[in-house]
Amino acid sequence: MPRAVITGVAGFIGSHLADILLERGYSVVGIDNLLTGSLSNIRHLGDRDFEFIELDVTRDIAVAGPLDLVLHWASPASPVDYLELPIPTLKVGALGTHKALGLAKAKNARFVLASTSEVYGDPLEHPQRETYWGNVNPIGPRGVYDEAKRFAEAITTAYHRYHGLDAKIVRIFNTYGPRMRLQDGRAIPNFITQALRGEDVTVYGDGDQTRSFCFVSDLVRGILDLADSDVNEPVNIGNPAEMTIRQIADAIIRATGSLSRVVHKPLPADDPRVRQPDITRARTLLGWEPRVSLDEGLRKTIDYFRAALAAAETR
Ligand code: UDP
């Protein structure tokens, strides 16, 4: 039976990775320090072939027995989190990636780094191809995340080149779905929570900035397609359906049947104007493309938020 480690397993994407690996017959060891992750995301795995270790991966990671795959997902990932946690964000991207790579090397396991479209910064190339080097402000408020992930890509590539580690880099674009936190701070969870509560929906700036949103089941399938491939260059995984933030706010108000109205708030510093993945590499090298439409993805996400809000309110 193949065996995998997931760092950041109690997070939104980490917990979905655990689900899909268990479905595919893996034994899973999940690691998390619960800084932004939550045990409620992995409680349902209790009766599966799943072991949880509560650990900060910037420290030594000790896992007994053989391993086939290390998925390094630990990091704050919402802009509001990395603004509040700048040093833990830098440390997990730098020191934590070093430790996770060391674990993969010691076990001769394949390694996948959770990188991000943030390595492209506020992009001057549109859509973004993997060959684009990016436009990042190292000392801006997002620099702690962007530069940590850029360092993480550099050290992952060095382990591949100098140690021959079978290391992969996935550049994740905006993703949404069940198990995002009610107070996550990112656009889709904020808008759904606000719409379901009948509160004002907060669009930052004029709302003309764009993003391209991928449903989480498409993303984790793409990550495993990459893990199973012989590809070692970075690969964008995201849904190229680009829209403005104002459009996604309106779509969520419609889909929830809410009476909320849109209000505008100041645009955060260095907020990228546009973002859209070029997924030619994923299509040609992995045969991957997204399948879930925005309508279907929003429906599933809104159902989850409705239940989570009801549970939070009766608590
Ligand atoms: N945004 C917004 N209202 C919110 C949260 C976010 O208008 O309540 C905007 C944010 O300024 C950005 C876009 O939505 O332009 C996506 O933000 P998010 O925090 O989801 O992630 P990002 O793509 O910026 O990393």
Strand order of the largest sheet: 3-2-1-4-5-6-11
Number of DSSP strand runs: 13
Helix content: 25-40%
Determine the mean pLDDT: 97
**Tally of contiguous helical segments:** 9
CATH class of the largest domain, please?
A: Alpha Beta
Which CATH-level-2 architecture of the largest domain? 3-Layer(aba) Sandwich
Low-pLDDT stretches are none
Q: What small molecules does this complex bind?
A: uridine-5'-diphosphate
Q: What oligomeric state do the depicted chains represent?
A: single chain
CATH topology value of the largest domain: Rossmann fold
Silhouette: globular
The biggest beta sheet is recorded as: 7 strands, parallel
Distance between the termini: 40 Å
CATH H-level homologous superfamily name of the largest domain: NAD(P)-binding Rossmann-like Domain
Itemize the secondary structure elements and their pairings:
Layout: E1 3-7, H1 12-23, E2 27-32, E3 50-54, E4 69-72, H2 79-84, H3 86-107, E5 110-116, H4 143-163, E6 167-172, E7 175-176, H5 187-197, E8 201-204, E9 210-212, E10 214-215, H6 216-227, E11 235-237, E12 242-244, H7 245-256, E13 262-265, H8 280-286, H9 294-314
Note the main attributes of this structure:
about 325 residues, alpha/beta, Rossmann fold, UDP-galactose 4-epimerase, domain 1, 2 domains, 7-stranded parallel β-sheet, two-stranded parallel ribbon, 13 strands, globular, binds uridine-5'-diphosphate
Please provide a written account of the structure:
The chain is of the alpha/beta class. It has two domains: 194 residues, Rossmann fold (3-Layer(aba) Sandwich); 83 residues, UDP-galactose 4-epimerase, domain 1 (Alpha-Beta Complex). Helix content is 39%, strand content 17%. The chain is built from nine helices and 13 strands. α5 crosses α9. The radius of gyration is 19 Å and the shape is globular. The protein starts with a strand and ends with a helix. Uridine-5'-diphosphate (UDP) binds next to α5 and β8.
